[in-house]
Write a structure and sequence with these properties.
Helix content is about 35%, strand content about 20%. The chain has about 450 residues and is α/β, with parallel strands linked by helices. It comes from uncultured Cytophagales bacterium.
């Protein structure tokens, strides 16, 4: 029997099938065009995504195909789907990058006792719509007609699972994903959730390992509760490593996890985009975030235009060069103007404009870009580590396949054990583990490649 997993990222949508030993035996990707919300802001095309997910699973389960007995969904967080009594969405899946109105934010902080107290209690910096619970507060204030029609507000991973189970649920890894909903100091929803009346919109909470049997394409399938992708990426490492470690999960966001820290977050750490996530068991996980992949994509696109590399992902072919590293790492002055990479406290500085004329070749430009980005990455790893020495660092996700990224990590953390995932499976594998029995998950031997530093 097989386990099917949807892993829904902001850019790539992935469908995987695992065998009884949790080895991946099938994988397919797609990218879907965005649509726009009623304000013209780009966002996920929810009907198109829903159609793709249902069609993909139906094709996989056709006679002669995969014998799917379990299904789970991992998606990006900080997003809600609001459904009516018939289970139909009443509003778009609003983009977490959509600006949050400043007057509404000021009103909210007046209600909750101030910004700093709110951020400390919810273990997250103020991120606007990225504090996804505030999307509901915004909807209540700015879209009262749509708000009045909501029966359930489902975190995105739980909505993806709901498409197949028909069971509305809430789940800890989604609740704890910088939503502004959970009071980590009290171990429950923050007072504002009930005070504003939005608490009634959240279905009962289940663990990420929960599952329910549903009829899917005419077959009984155990459908998982859904899981936040970053927490899913962490799960295989928690089950595979008995000693303390950090995990650097890479992609659109590069997130460094420290599941062994128990120190409360300070206002200074929150200002550097340090925050708490949740493990599948509800325990907090200290993490630091960097919008690394988003800025990387923007810069490499501009770089390609400047150097006439407009076809394909040219940067995949550029490998680490020691001479270029020595040349470009010696200068502390920023060469690149960063557009989307900034801390909540505004302390990241970059060049007023990119100095393209300083680079004789695209290889030089790419090395210098990665050196500047990796300086920020090193700081983010150390922030998540806190007082804990960095002795073991797992690396997962898309950048784990980058020769230059890994070699620069080697330079930044001499003496540490760097353990690199051989393929970017983390979120999908974690979701598959969550929906399978504990014994299967614990007996799985996570195949990792060690890089001596």
């Amino acid at each position: 029997m097989h386990t099917a997993v949807f892993d829904i990222g902001k850019t790539n949508k992935k469908f995987s099938v695992f065998d009884e030993n949790l080895s991946e035996i099938h994988r397919e990707y797609t990218t879907l065009p965005e649509t726009a919300d009623e304000d013209g802001f780009p966002t996920e095309d929810l009907p198109l995504l829903t159609e793709w997910m249902r069609d993909t699973l139906r094709k996989a389960m056709t006679p002669g195909g995969f014998r799917v007995s379990r299904l789970n969904c991992s998606t990006y967080g900080a997003s809600f789907v609001h459904v009516d009594a018939q289970g139909n969405p009443v509003a778009p899946l609003y983009n977490y990058l959509k600006p949050f109105p400043e007057p509404l934010a000021a009103r909210f902080f007046d209600q909750v006792g101030g910004k700093e107290d709110f951020c400390v209690r919810t273990a997250s910096p103020w991120l606007g719509m990225l504090n996804s619970g505030l999307q509901i507060y915004w909807l209540q204030a700015e879209r009262p007609d749509a708000f009045a029609r909501i029966r359930h507000s489902l975190h995105f991973p739980q909505y993806a699972a709901y498409l197949f189970s028909g069971l509305p649920q809430s789940e800890f890894t989604s609740i704890g994903c910088h939503t502004g909903l959970w009071d980590f100091t009290a171990g429950r929803y923050h007072d504002w959730v009930e005070g504003t009346g939005i608490g009634r919109l959240f279905p009962g909470t289940v663990p990420a390992t929960g599952r329910t049997t549903a009829l899917v394409n005419g077959q009984p399938v155990e459908v998982g509760a859904g899981i936040h992708d970053s927490s899913a990426a962490l799960l295989p490492y928690l089950l595979s490593s008995p000693e303390p470690f950090l995990l650097l999960s890479t992609g659109t966001w590069n997130i460094t996890f420290n599941p062994f820290s128990r120190d409360p977050l300070t206002p200074a750490e929150l200002g550097k985009d340090c925050l708490n996530y949740m493990r599948v068991d509800g325990a907090p996980v200290k993490a630091s975030r960097l919008f690394f992949g988003n800025e990387f994509n923007r810069q490499t696109r501009l770089m390609g235009e400047k150097f006439g590399k407009t076809e394909g992902n040219y940067h995949y072919t550029i490998t680490f060069d020691e001479a270029r590293y020595r040349r470009w790492s010696a200068d502390p002055t920023p060469y690149f103007h960063l557009e989307s990479l900034q801390y909540p406290d505004g302390s990241i500085s970059s060049a007023p404009e990119t100095r393209w004329d300083a680079f004789p070749t695209v290889e030089d430009a790419f090395h210098r870009l990665m050196i500047e980005l990796m300086r920020l990455q090193k700081a983010a790893v150390l922030l998540a580590a806190g007082a804990t020495p960095v002795r073991k660092l797992f690396v997962d996700g898309g950048f784990s396949q980058s020769d230059l990224f890994i070699n620069l990590l080697r330079k930044d953390f001499p003496g540490a054990e760097l353990v690199v995932s051989p393929s970017p499976l983390g979120s999908s594998l974690g979701a598959a583990m969550a929906v399978n029995s504990e014994d299967v998950a614990r007996n799985y031997q996570f195949d990792l490649r060690r890089v001596s530093l």
